[in-house]
Inverse folding.
């Protein structure tokens, strides 16, 4: 076998291996579900075609902590939680737009690129404490106002949904 044939055989073998290797699997939540990601083509759905997360599952993802002022809090506040892109990656979600839905059914449309290009987080804690519904929890979409002051404007404020329960992904 010549070198070209060997390289082609190796490429086919590697490609074949990748095709049969198991996909990333999202465990089912064992605690109370606080977030459900929905979409037409979630690669890692774990419950009835959706990706559901409990608090521990969200804590296991890549996290961000930031101390910042917001229009909804007094003074500087520390927020911490998983990066939005980490949640979407865990769900195997791809698309162009996100509809972020709150417990009271308020929603905001957020470009998918806000998750990819900005360090947006789904804050689970404020000043080190889990956020209750009364305190804008269980999840609050926080833009990185501390890293990029140009984001501190009405465009991003309107996308900063609190009391999040669902994320709907669309093309």
């Amino acid at each position: 076998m010549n070198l070209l044939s060997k390289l082609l055989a190796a490429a086919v073998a590697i490609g074949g291996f990748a095709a049969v290797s198991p996909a990333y699997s999202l465990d089912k939540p064992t605690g109370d579900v606080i977030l459900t990601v929905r979409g037409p083509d979630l690669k890692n759905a774990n419950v009835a075609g959706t990706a559901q997360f409990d608090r521990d599952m969200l804590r296991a993802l890549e996290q961000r902590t930031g101390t910042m002022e917001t229009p909804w809090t007094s003074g500087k506040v520390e927020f911490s939680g998983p990066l939005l892109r980490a949640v979407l990656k865990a769900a195997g979600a791809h698309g162009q737009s996100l509809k972020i839905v709150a417990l009271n059914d308020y929603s905001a449309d957020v470009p998918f690129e806000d998750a990819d290009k900005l360090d947006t987080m789904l804050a689970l804690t404020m000043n080190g404490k889990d956020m209750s519904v009364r305190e804008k929890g269980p999840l609050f979409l926080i833009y990185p106002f501390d890293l990029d002051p140009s984001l501190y404007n009405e465009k991003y404020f309107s996308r900063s949904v609190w009391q999040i329960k669902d994320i709907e992904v669309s093309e």
Notes: The chain has one domain: 25-170.
